[in-house]
Design goal:
Elements lengths: L6 E6 L2 H10 L3 E2 L8 E4 L5 E6 H7 L18 E5 L2 H14 L2 E8 L5 E6 L5 E6 L7
Parallel strand pairs: 1-4, 5-8
Antiparallel strand pairs: 2-3, 3-4, 6-7, 7-8
Length: 137
């Protein structure tokens, strides 16, 4: 296997609401999207898919036995790296304006960077981070 991630699928409670949220954040909707699933473009080629939570569990032959929002820590977070601490704060504010919940405001972190977290309408966690050791140019 060649290590590569081409798509991340989030199991969402309300597909139209989640699709609208990610569109407000600037994700483009791919033409193969429909009323059952949304495929969202990113600038680096990774695709973010939104699929109803129960249908995703069914598709994976897994149990969807959590509350309807999948409350609690989902065991992973998504990350969006930016070029400065100021941009971290701006992206967090943009996400909140689009309907996200601020989980942790931007702040200096132990590894030398600056980061904060927001939760999308289904509670999926996004870290927005400035890493001074990573060149984003």
């Amino acid at each position: 296997m060649k290590p590569h991630i081409s798509l991340i699928t989030l199991g969402v409670a309300d597909l139209p609401r989640s699709r609208a949220f990610y569109e407000r954040l600037g994700f483009g909707v791919r033409q193969e999207s429909n009323e059952h699933i949304a495929f969202m473009d990113t600038v680096n080629g990774l695709i973010l898919a939104l699929f109803p939570r129960e249908k995703l569990a069914e598709d994976a032959n897994a149990s969807a036995d959590t509350d309807k929002r999948g409350a609690g820590f989902p065991g992973f977070s998504l990350a969006h790296n930016v070029a400065s601490p100021e941009e971290v704060d701006a992206v967090l504010a943009e996400a909140v304006a689009a309907g996200a919940t601020l989980q942790k405001p931007g702040q200096k972190v132990f590894w030398g960077g600056y980061s904060g977290y927001f939760a999308d309408p289904d509670g999926f966690l996004w870290e927005v981070a400035y890493n001074p050791f990573m060149d984003l140019t």
